[in-house]
Amino acid sequence: MKKQVIISGLMLFSLFFGAGNLIFPPMLGHTAGQNMWIGMLGFALTGILLPFITVIVVAFYDEGVESVGNRIHPWFGFIFAVVIYMSIGAFYGIPRAANVAYEIGTRHILPVHNQWTLIIFAAIFFAIVYWISLNPSKIVDNLGKLLTPLLLLMVALLSIAVIFNPESALSAPKDKYITHPFISGSLEGYFTMDLVAALAFSVVIVNGYKFKGLTDRMKILKYVCFSGLIAAILLGMIYFALAYVGASTAPGNFKDGTDILTYNSLRVFGSFGNLVFGMTVILACLTTCIGLVNACATFTKKHVPKFSYKIFALVFSIIGFLFTTLGLEMILKIAVPLLTLIYPESIALVLISFANMFSTFRFSWAYRLATVITLIIS
């Protein structure tokens, strides 16, 4: 089972490490400069610790994402879960990851970028996603044994090469990182929205242990905690390394972390750097999409048992393909307002559920009060 814990931890890392997680830390490091370490501690609080707590909460209550909303009312739990899976999954997370894989991953690889190349790329991308998602019992092994080690290798190759060949010393902090590095870093971690992703992904890792024959809830919880810890440590190491890449990059006109990583890839590896960075982005997006398709299909199959898991995996792959062809701007217009509404709500419910794990009281009043207050504020 130790081997399975490690494989599950690697798989969980790859689910969280999407394109946004790849490009946020370099820009943070570049802006924070000498205050990078403090800023990254804030980033780790909201971008690593909160998702880790979420994974534990979902595993503890053993009902998937609905377990959080069910603390208020079963109907609320169902509606809450539908909103989570549709927003972070089918109508945002899946097509966004695929679109970013195309826009950023192939930017310097494909000679031509137009609607037809996007359609062809998306068709190939989602064919791979569907193929790997077909067997849910092997998702953990396929990601943990195959794709995640390759993703880690690509990220490590880029990070280590820059760390041992920095362009400059850490510069002076800029903008908000001069006076409030910790808070600013916390906000950057908040914008990854990985807590909502954790609500969706947790069912994948819990089911992974169930497919291995485990039925004892507390044993599953223990193993999930260890796997989550492995994922958290890996995320922390990679995030800090990527932040250092940004912090050690000489001041320049960089719009975001993508520009910083592309620049350093070319600086260190030459023309080969385009391929290294492009493949890293595509792999990061691919693993995230596989996890989201699996999670969405599993949830839908639970509530609509008339149809098979494979049918729903195909449906969500097709939805992802169709929304990807709309372009990133259209995707953001549709989903961002909804995510902005439910994210504070999700944080409040997860934290109260976590506190409730250590108490015999149900905290019903706290759940309802938190729901009302966060909805009003949102």
Automatic annotation (TrEMBL):
Matches recorded under InterPro entries: Brnchd-chn_aa_trnsp_Livcs
Domain of life: Bacteria
Residue intervals passing through the bilayer: 5-24, 36-61, 73-94, 114-134, 146-164, 190-209, 221-245, 275-299, 311-332, 338-358
GO molecular-function terms, A-Z: L-isoleucine transmembrane transporter activity; L-leucine transmembrane transporter activity; L-valine transmembrane transporter activity
Record's bilayer topology term: Multi-pass membrane protein
Keywords: Amino-acid transport, Cell membrane, Membrane, Transmembrane, Transmembrane helix, Transport
Pfam family, one: Branch_AA_trans
GO CC annotation, single: plasma membrane
Annotated compartments: Cell membrane
GO biological process: isoleucine transport; L-leucine transport
Family according to the record: Belongs to the branched chain amino acid transporter family.
Described function: Component of the transport system for branched-chain amino acids.
Protein name, per record: Branched-chain amino acid transport system carrier protein
Species annotation: Staphylococcus aureus
Gene: brnQ
